[in-house]
Amino acid sequence: MTGSNPDFYNAIIERLADPGKNKRWAQYSNTSGPVAPLLKAGTPDLLHKSLATAAPETIAPMAKMANPGTLITWVGDFVDSVTHPASFQTSWQRLPAGQPPAISAPIYRY
Questions:
Q1: What's this model's pTM, rounded to 2 decimal places?
Q2: What is the Cα–Cα distance from 52 to 46, expressed in whole angstroms?
Q3: For the residues of 29-73, what is the DSSP string, one character each?
Q4: CA distances from residue 12 to 20, 26, 71 in whole angstroms, order as listed
Q5: Per residue in 97-107, pLDDT tens?
Q6: What are the counts of helices (DSSP H) followed by strands (DSSP E) for the chain?
Q7: What's the average model confidence in pLDDT over 38-56?
Q8: 29, 41 in Cβ contact below 8 A?
Q9: Cα 48 vs. chain centroid, distance in angstroms?
Q10: Quick check: 81 and 73 in contact, CB under 8 A?
Q11: Contact criterion met (CB below 8 Å) for 17 and 10
């Protein structure tokens, strides 16, 4: 019954089109309370401090992902594998050659 009630859809549209919603969302980020540490977790200063104290083996994968050359290499390898699929397939990537079974089983057709 709710889906046929136009007041239901009007209530949703009013809440989505509320001009004060953006203001309330912006003010929510300035709150001090139990949510404040979570909001500060993504700040650049805190990220820089935590990365400065991290072990090198922890930072190495992130540094590799941040390197633009990694993305270029990955995209280049993908394009090469799409345009020349046989040249990049190793033996474990290929399907085994079809061999007839030792004993032929009857073929059932239903």
A1: 0.31
A2: 10
A3: TT--STTHHHHHTT-HHHHHHHHHSS-HHHHHHHHHHH-HHHHHH
A4: 15, 21, 42
A5: 666 666 666 67
A6: 7, 0
A7: 77
A8: no
A9: 23
A10: no
A11: no
